[in-house]
Structures are given as C-alpha cells and as structure tokens.
Amino acid sequence: MSELRAPNLLAWVDVVVTAPAHSGLGETLTYRCEQALTPGTLVRVPMGRRETLGLVWAVRDHPPEGLQPAQTRPVTAVLDALPPLNARWRELVAFAARYYQRALGEVALAALPPALRDLTPEQLGRRLKKTQPETPTAVSASALAPLSPDQAQALADLQGESRPVLLYGTTGSGKTEVYLRAAQRLLEEDPEAQVLVMVPEINLTPQLEARLRERFAAHALVTLHSGLTPAQRLKHWIAAHLGQARIVLGTRMAIFASLPRLRLIVVDEEHDPSYKSQEGARYSARDLAVYRARLESAHAPCQVLLGSATPSLESWHAAEQGRYRRLAMPSRIGGGALPRLRLVDMNQQPRHTVIAPALLQAMADRAARGEQSLVLLNRRGYAPVLACHDCGWKSDCPHCSAHAVFHKIDRTLRCHHCGHTTRVPRACPECGNLDITPLGRGTEQIEEQLTGLLADARRPDGQPVRVARLDADTTRAKGSLESQLAGMHSGEVDVLVGTQMVAKGHDFRRITLVASLNTDSGLFASDYRAPERLFALLMQAAGRAGRDAAFVAEQGSQVELWVQTWYPQHPLFAALARHDYPAFAAQQLEERASAQMPPYGHQALVRAEARTQPAAQAWLRLAAEAGAGLPGHERLTLYPAVPMAIQRVANVERAQMLIESPSRPALQAFLAAWQPALQALRAHPETHGLIRWAIDVDPLTI
DNA sequence: AGCACGCCGACT
DNA sequence: GTCGGCGTGCTC
C-alpha cells in the first residue's frame, strides 16, 4: 500500500460560519484549501448538504486535534475580488461576540450584508465591475455659515483629543454643524479618511443625509440601515469596504461596517435606547463605537464623538470621571430661549379633564397667530383597551398577557405585541351588553378630541385650525412620513398630535408650544431608567419649540413646554424647568450609586421563553444552580427568576433573572464560564417546554 | 442560527 | 391533489 501523502500546497483554514455556539461545534470549522488564504478572506464552504458564506479566521498547517484530514471538506470558492476584512474589524466582531455572549459566527455573518451570502465569485466580480471606482472628491469650501462661539470652541477643543468626546449641547445649539465641520476638517486633512455617522432611527437618516450631501460631494456618502434593498445594502457596504465611501451614515447596524480608513465616529443622540439592539446579539452600538475607536487608534488615530442634549448617565458619569472629554454647548443658535415650563396640576382641573382648558386656549391662540403646537402622547390607537361595564370584560389579546388596543379608524382591536387583529365586536362577547366603552386615550382619540375642541378656533387666514396625527400608524406607508413632515413645514397643519416619534430631531420652524399629556406614566414606572428617559423625552420635545429665534422674536410669542401631571412637585420637573440636565443627572447618579446600579454596578439579564411559565422559571433556576461556584460567582448577585412585565407574548411564556456585580470583569468571567453550562441544560429533563433562552448584557430595561 | 426533511390543515 | 405550517436534527 502506497504511503498517503498530502499534496504540497494543501493547507487548512478555520472558517467562521453561522452556527450558534450551542450547536455543539466550535466557533470555527476547519476546511481544506489549495491556496494560502489570509485571515479575513470571504469564502464559500460546504455545510452539510448546502453551501454557505464563511470568513477565514485563522490559517493552520494541520487539522485540529481529533479531526482527520480526510474529514475536512474543501473550500468551494474564494471571494478574493474583495480585500480581506481587516484585523481591527475582526477584533471588533470578536469582542462583540465575546462581550454580548453570542456565537462568533452569528455576529460576524450578521455584520455582513445579507446579499453577500448567496453570491458566487463570478456574480461578485460582475457586481464589482459595474461599480466603477469613484474618484475622491475635494470637499466643497463654499461659503459656510459662521460658527457660534460654542461651536467654534467645541471644534477647537475636539482637535487632538484622544479620549472619547461627549458633545453636550442643548437642543438647537447646532451639534450637527459640529459633526459636519469635524468630518470636513478630517476629510480635508486626510484624503483617504472615512467617517461613520450614526443616528438612532432610520427616520432620521433622510434629513441628515440631505445635509451631508449638500456639504460633501454626493458620491462620497453612503447610507447603511435596514430600509435599504439587499442590493443597495450590498453596494453601499462594498463602497465602504473598498474605502470609496468617505462618509457612512447609518443606524446601529452601521457600527459593524467595514471601514478600512475609519478616523471619526459620530454617535448622534447617544442617549437614545435604539442604539441597543433588542434581538439577536443585544449589542450597544454606542458602546461598540467607543470600543471601535480605541481599537482603530492603535493603528491610526480615530476619534469618537457622542452627541446629546441629555446624555446617557453612563456617558455623563464617564465625563465626570474624566474618562471622556466633555464639551458643552449651552447656547442656542441665534440666542433663542428654551421653552418656559408650564406645569398643569391635574388635581386642580375639572374632573375628567383630558386637555386642560388653559392649554387648549394657548394652542388656539398660537394657531390664530400662525404658530404651531406639538402634542405628545405615547400611545397609539384610540384607546388602550375596550371594556364592558356590566360584566367586566376587557379586550384582551388571546395570545398575550396584554390588552388589544382599540383602533377606531378601521374598527379593529390590535395587539401591539403580537399583531393579532380582530374586528371590534358590536356587543360584549361575554354578556352581550351593547355598551362597551373605550378606557384611556391614545393619539387617535386626542386627535379627534382636539379637532372637536378647536372647531371654533381660526388660523390667520380665517380657516379652521387643522389638527393632524403622526405615529407609526400614519407613517406606515412609504413616503407618508415625508409628506406629513412636509405638511408641518408648509404650515398646512397647526396642531400635530403624535407619539415620541414627533419629538425626535425634526426641525420645525414655527412651533412655539409643545405639550405632554400623559407624562406621569414615566414618573413612577418600575424601570429605574424611566425618569432618565422621561427627562430626555421632555427635553427633546421641548427642543422642537422656538428653534427659529427670529420667527419667535417677530411673533413676540412665548415659547412654552406644557406638562400635564398629577405630581407637579416631583423633583424631575424642578430640574426640567431650569433645563438643568447636570442637576438631574447628579441626582440620578447619586441614587444609582447608593443602589449600586449602572453605571456603578453592572448587570446582565437571562431571559427564558417556554411553553409554560413554570418551565421558563424552572430553566432559570437550574441555570442559577449551574452557576454556583463558577469564576466571578462570589462577586455577583443572582436574583430570583421572575415573570417578565408582559408575561406572555404570542403564546410564549417569558421569565427572566437579573445578575448584578460591582465588577464588570467578574460579571464577564462568570458569563463566559456559565455559557457551556447553560447549553448543557438543554439535555436536562426539567427543561422540557423551553423554547429559547438568551443573555442580555447591559440591559436597558429590566 | 439556518436550513432541510418530514408530517398534518386550507386552498391555487 | 399541492402549498405551507413549524417540530426535529444536522452542520469540519
């Protein structure tokens, strides 16, 4: 028998593919290849009876222990028309997978454009040929508006700063212009540098995109968000990866874009919870931005700029400690004043008041002068629930432990958690009573009531006052958000009712009044971050008003934020009245410190979903037992398993368990050691009925 | 995680 | 008769 010898050029590569850590396989699979491949190369490899996209992670000259060379399958194709993903990118992905307790393959492949998955080298080649390399363009040095003293100072201070920068600028202080100038300065200095700009919501990309395109040559900019078609996303990703795109504007997913010459990351509205992913790997794009800038800086300087009028307490704390550099911009452009707070004490109002008469009058007065009002109510639909007064029936969702919301517009009951929709019954399904009534109020109802209550009010042109509504329901169709915003800009609409969607970023020039109707829901929520979110929301909403100082001066109007509350003495309002975020933050941080909560303590949440609540909780109890004695265990607290606030969604029972530690490394060490034990629990008989489980590191809501 | 295979309900 | 629901099992 002749000696079996490998051909000279035979090599092996460890390839990352989408297989979860709990599949029993390692993080990488080893394949055979005929040519030397570098780490970061994209390949196509066989997986069972199909072929899949993989990423070369490591190169080796022998298969791993326990794997016969004959067991390895060959790499099918090499996508070498694309340069390899660089080491910093790979390190970012590896860190995210490790830190957020997910499989490397899941994070790596989710970070790549989905269209890349089913692309042969030939198809890729054709696609690359079509996108001709674009010539780097000079940044237009056209006449720019002069900077405010705050802006000029911030830009000067930004220069050469190696720490993450927290740009703490009040609403209307011109943070965006600072981002633009910082990007411009960098792009002029370094003809190959790339800038990543992130916004919390896809809704906010068009207006920033317009501003960026106006300032920078059009083809140097690409967007990256979930609203793109697969082909667009692939094209934009490739432009970034090849270094052709100089500016990438995107949502949280853009933090994983391949940017070989990344020199600046801007995180706009850094406090926004949307930066924390809520499915799959639950990463914080803001935190990863800080990490990524540090990784890049080991190679070439890369700044990270976090901007907000109400920074997250985490970032604020980091700035207080000097880990971040804080740059403050306290003044509004044009010297406009921030709105005056008008607290409406609901205890002093006539019974069953929905909108205080004085507030109504203030809106009518403004409409009469050609000014606009914004009314904030964080509930879609007409009423959160329908009820029968005779038998106590409520419009509960059959699949969730939540009410189905009454939408009057199409006579439906809709569950906002699972999407289950039914027609509104004509009579109580339990007792036949014809008198079933809506309880509570949503945006539809406020729109209806305001229309009625303002029926006699007139605009300057003598026409009746126009009320419109802006929420997820009215903006579902493509382009409807744009057309609604246009209606607001043109002055067609006098009063706009909406959910928090209306509070974000939009620059309406004629708003002089903002009102919050059901403010208290955020005051006493069980979630310890609720006050922080409420303060940010109210500040942000307030920031929509009086943005055009010249308009306000001309009108001679008072710019106001009206807040309806049953608790006008709440300290949050005292800080809000003074627009005093630092005082609010100091008070919140003091509470957090004494309770050892973030940013002083660190948390992770284990969530279990099962057929029954006992099954979900049993799994969590077993998980806790499996954690006893693991590294880091002595430095952390495992709380008992509890049902989640909404216990059942789409017929799945949910429970969770909180883990706290004063030490982030201890928590991380524990979670890493715990992971295999949790996977092994699958085999446990008591685990029957478990559907899935996941760990949420640094959870935002508990 | 994907994705294929495989086995039971409402329609082109 | 199929299309398609998601349960189970596999992936160097």
UniProtKB/TrEMBL annotation:
Hydrolase: is it a keyword of this entry? yes
GO terms in the biological process aspect are: DNA recombination; DNA replication initiation; DNA replication, synthesis of primer; double-strand break repair
Instruction: Please name the SUPFAM superfamilies in this protein's record.
Output: P-loop containing nucleoside triphosphate hydrolases
The residues listed in the UniProt record as binding Zn(2+) 1, with positions renumbered to this chain, are C388, C391, C428, C431
Q: Name one GO cellular component term.
A: primosome complex
Listed EC numbers: 5.6.2.4
- Family of the protein in this entry: Belongs to the helicase family. PriA subfamily.
- Oligomeric state and partners? Component of the replication restart primosome.
Protein name as it appears in the record: Replication restart protein PriA
Species per Swiss-Prot/TrEMBL record? Tepidicella xavieri
- Where is the organism placed in the taxonomic lineage, from the top? Bacteria, Pseudomonadati, Pseudomonadota, Betaproteobacteria, Burkholderiales
Name of the encoding gene: priA
